[in-house]
Write a structure and sequence with these properties.
2 domains; 7-stranded mixed β-sheet; Aspartate Aminotransferase, domain 1; Aspartate Aminotransferase, domain 2; 4-stranded antiparallel β-sheet; 15% strand; alpha/beta
């Protein structure tokens, strides 16, 4: 089996990740619930992982890192926690590059009375930073955008966007689901107010892990309240980070696996990981772009892009191509829609969808060549 669906979730992970999960299941109790050895072990795992996340993303401190189940929960927490159209006139800006984990919460807030501007993308799936600044209003509360498109691999210049947001006193929220663990991100230098990501993609941790990192001074109201392990007799949920955004038992077993993957990333180096994944992407792209009948989507004029290649094969539906690749060639990809409906429309493929190939540090050159050859055989078969 050749796994090329890493933009959905990493499949091949460092061996240390599974070992860490098993060890935590055997040793860790419930963090913050008592002072037993098992509870304290869980607390140590969680705190140490907060520290590693803070270090990786240049967060002010571990207390600014709250754990979530995934990037979607983190983004829901951020958006519903800072945008309150029922209390004040509020406007937000997002882009056509964004995932439904951004769009759907914003649509829900729009129904409550929030004004929403969605920046358009061009035929290559790119947005204009100049358009962004023009869209700002006096009542604009937040700019939210993806760091990289899960469909095209195009990256946004988050440093430039962060500077614009800070200049205008607007909160800047970044969806880093596709880039965390692969691209360097600095909350301080990029002037990010809220950073959201999952732990199971580029970070190579277990599913069920993610985080929201919040700049000190930014108030995010909790999405959920309840058990916190502290302030038991208080009617309100704790107001200090990170407990303010965490309710209920944390996934300490998954977080232990995430800690192990963070250690592996630190040892390997983000630059090394990114360069290998991009090398594999370019190796694939350089082969498939020459295949008759293949249309590739996105902007490949910039070398620094997320390791994703989405395409269609003339005369064959994307779902059929994905099914044939899986059943006849043992190649796992994602076909159809990709939870980014506005990006599909901008590219003109809302009816056809696309076949997405996304690459991992653990893929081999031989796997890339085999996938490109399989696509070539499919194209030749359609022509015949």
């Amino acid at each position: 089996m050749i796994y090329l669906d890493n933009a959905a979730t990493s499949f091949h992970k460092p061996d240390c990740v599974a070992r860490a999960v098993v060890e935590a299941m055997q040793q860790a109790g419930n963090s913050g619930r008592g002072s037993s050895g098992e509870a304290m072990e869980a607390s140590r795992i969680i705190f140490d992982t907060r520290c590693k996340i803070a270090q990786l993303f240049d967060v002010e401190g571990p207390e600014c890192v709250a754990f979530t189940a995934n990037a979607t929960e983190a983004l829901n927490t951020a958006l519903f926690g800072i945008l309150h159209p029922e209390r004040e006139k509020v406007h937000a800006i997002c882009t056509e590059m964004d995932h439904n984990s951004v769009l759907r919460p914003l649509y829900a807030l729009e129904k409550r009375g929030m004004d929403l501007t969605i920046l358009p993308a061009d035929g290559k799936g790119r947005i204009s930073v100049d358009d962004l600044e023009v869209a700002i209003r006096p009542e604009t509360k937040a700019i939210v955008c993806t760091h990289a498109s899960n469909l095209t691999g195009n990256c946004n210049d988050i440093r430039s966007i962060g500077a614009i947001a800070r200049k205008h006193g607007i909160l800047f929220i970044v969806d880093a689901a596709q880039t965390a663990g692969v691209f360097p991100i600095s909350m301080k230098k990029d002037q990010i107010d809220i950073l959201c990501f999952s732990g199971h993609k580029g970070l190579m941790g277990p599913q069920g892990t993610g985080a929201i990192c919040v700049r000190p001074g930014v108030l995010v109201e909790p999405l959920k309240v309840g058990g916190s392990g502290i302030l038991t007799f208080q009617k309100e949920h704790p107001s200090d980070m990170p407990e303010s955004l965490e309710a209920g038992t944390l996934n300490s077993h998954g977080i232990a696996g995430l800690r192990a993957s963070l250690e592996w990333i630190q040892e390997t180096g983000i630059h090394t990981i990114r360069k290998r994944e991009q090398m594999l992407m370019w190796r694939f792209y350089d082969q498939v772009k020459k295949i008759p009948g293949v249309t590739v989507y996105g902007d490949f004029s910039q070398e620094d892009r997320s390791p994703v290649v989405s395409l269609n094969l003339e005369g064959e539906g994307s779902a059929e191509v994905g099914m044939i690749l899986g059943e006849d060639y043992g190649i796992s990809v994602r076909s159809g829609g990709h939870c980014a409906p506005l990006m599909h429309k901008a590219l003109g493929i809302e009816k056809t969808g696309a076949v997405r190939f996304s690459f991992s540090y653990f893929n081999t050159e031989e796997e890339i060549d085999a996938a490109a050859a399989a696509l070539g055989e499919l194209a030749a078969g359609i022509e015949d």
